[in-house]
Structures are given as C-alpha cells and as structure tokens.
Design goal:
By secondary structure, the protein is mainly β. It has no helices and eleven strands. It starts with a strand and ends with a strand.
C-alpha cells in the first residue's frame, strides 16, 4: 500500500505564489511517475504536471511558464511551485503516483485546496 500526503495549499492573491509538497510512503517502485492534478468546482479533473523518476516533465498548457514540478527521489517527495497565480487556478490539487511492477499501480492523495483571490 502507498500513502500520499499533500501540504502547502491555502489562500493567495492573484499574482502570488504557493508551493505544494507531496510525500509518498509505502511500497513504491523506483521507476514511477508522480504528478499533480486539480479539480475546480463544477469542472472535470485535469492534469497539471507530471514528472518521471528520471525527471522528465510534462505540463498542461494553462500552467506552462508559471508552474514548476520537481522531485526529491531520496525523500519520495514531489513539489509544485506555483507562481503568477490566477483566480482560474483555484481548485483542489491532488498528488498522484503511478508505477508498474508486474501490475499497474495508481495512488492518490487526499487533496489540498488552493484558492486564488482576484
């Protein structure tokens, strides 16, 4: 079993910054993809950014140039540095880890609220 615990959400004014963290614990295969997804009220969940265990990254077009995903493999931790925040970034942000070790595994955190005021 794998547990993901997010932290760092909160309320920030437009133009501000926040840094989200997610610590993974449990039986994690070393080759994996960690990422952040978000869901705004009344909208479908969407990918924000992902990062592989060898640090290849992928971003949603809406956050490119403003958000940076990074990870510390020794700490099983993924970060999301969010800058130039906009009200439309308001959502619950979820941490995710995917890996395959004979079977496919997909785990989610409990979510952390990010609210950007205008």
């Amino acid at each position: 079993q794998v547990q993901l615990v997010e932290s760092g959400g909160g309320l920030v004014q437009a133009g501000g910054s926040l840094r989200l963290s997610c610590v993974a614990s449990g039986s994690i295969f070393s080759i994996n993809v960690m990422g952040w997804y978000r869901q705004a009220p009344g909208k479908q969940s969407e990918l924000v950014a992902t990062i592989t265990s060898d640090s290849a990254t992928n971003y949603a077009d809406s956050v490119k140039g403003r958000f940076t995903i990074s990870r510390d493999n020794a700490k099983n931790t993924v970060y999301l540095q969010m800058s130039s925040l906009k009200p439309e970034d308001t959502a619950v942000y979820y941490c995710n880890i995917k890996f395959r070790n004979l079977l496919a595994y997909d785990y989610w955190g409990q979510g952390t609220q990010v609210t950007v005021s205008s």
